[in-house]
Design goal:
TIM Barrel, single chain, binds phosphoenolpyruvate, alpha/beta
Length: 250
């Protein structure tokens, strides 16, 4: 049985004080015995503050990105070791905004993923097709490329530290949510692909979150799909009520 996993990506939003307040509200609202794993992903600058607020609570802490080198002359970058030191247990890699706004390649994303695993951190690997690809019936082709580039060659043991987030690019921040059938089909395709690359046990164990305009009123239906194991939430993670509403839906 896969435990539902809901992560809130705060993106480039909030002052440190706002982040502190939101984290505090979530600590108050999330209990350890809900059976749902909950994480927040603040901007880098708010990480130390949020780490302090959530200490000892059921809320986990992740980062939105990482650089793959360990240290040195990489101005502006943050390493996996620094994230671990600041209290993060995981980071996102390959978020669509990194792929399509910051032009990150599958190769860079793979290096970031390996840097995180090398520090003993968990990874949420984000994948998803553009609207043009969906309309051209190329969703599976894109997912195949992204999943193979991200995961092929890892060990089954390393896969225990990986979560996959299926986030159709056209659904992120647009209010256009995938239908439950679209989400389930893509998740099933990804799970079967993981079975092909590794084996059925690895595929049955890996959690696949859906991301793209998840809100309290659509979360329960999406997460009721057999291969949807939680959600990666953007906009609706910025307010305690809506994020807690999504958690309740799981
Ligand atoms: C995201 O940031 O990964 C995301 C899915 O955003 P939103 O929920 O706002 O679509």
């Amino acid at each position: 049985m896969r435990r539902p996993y809901i992560a809130g990506n705060w993106k480039m939003n909030m002052t440190i004080e706002q982040a502190e307040q939101l984290a505090g509200a979530l600590v108050d609202g999330v209990s350890a015995d809900t059976g749902v794993e909950v994480a927040v992903i603040p901007p880098f600058l708010a990480i130390p503050t949020v780490a302090r607020v959530i200490e000892g609570s059921a809320v986990q802490l992740g980062a939105q990105d990482v650089y793959f080198e360990k240290s040195g002359a990489f101005t502006g970058e943050i390493s996996a070791g620094m994230l671990a030191d600041a209290g993060c247990s995981f980071a996102l890699v390959g978020h669509s905004e990194r792929r399509h706004v910051l032009m990150e390649s599958d190769e860079i994303i793979r290096k970031k993923l390996e840097a995180l695993l090398g520090q003993g951190l968990n990874v949420i690997l984000c994948v998803g097709e553009l609207i043009e690809e969906r309309e051209a019936n190329e969703t599976e082709k894109r997912l195949n490329i992204q999943i193979r580039a991200g995961l092929e060659g890892l060990s089954s043991d390393q896969m225990k530290n990986i979560t996959i987030a299926y986030e159709p690019v056209w659904a992120i921040g647009t209010g256009k949510v995938a239908t439950t059938a679209q989400a389930q089909d893509a998740h099933k395709f990804i799970r079967n692909l993981v079975a092909e690359i590794f084996d059925r046990d690895v595929a049955d164990a890996v959690r696949i979150q859906y991301g793209g305009s998840v809100k309290p009123d659509n979360a329960a239906e999406l997460m009721a799909q057999p291969d949807v194991d939680g959600a990666l939430v953007g906009g609706a993670a910025l307010k305690p009520d809506s994020f807690l509403g999504i958690i309740a839906g799981a």
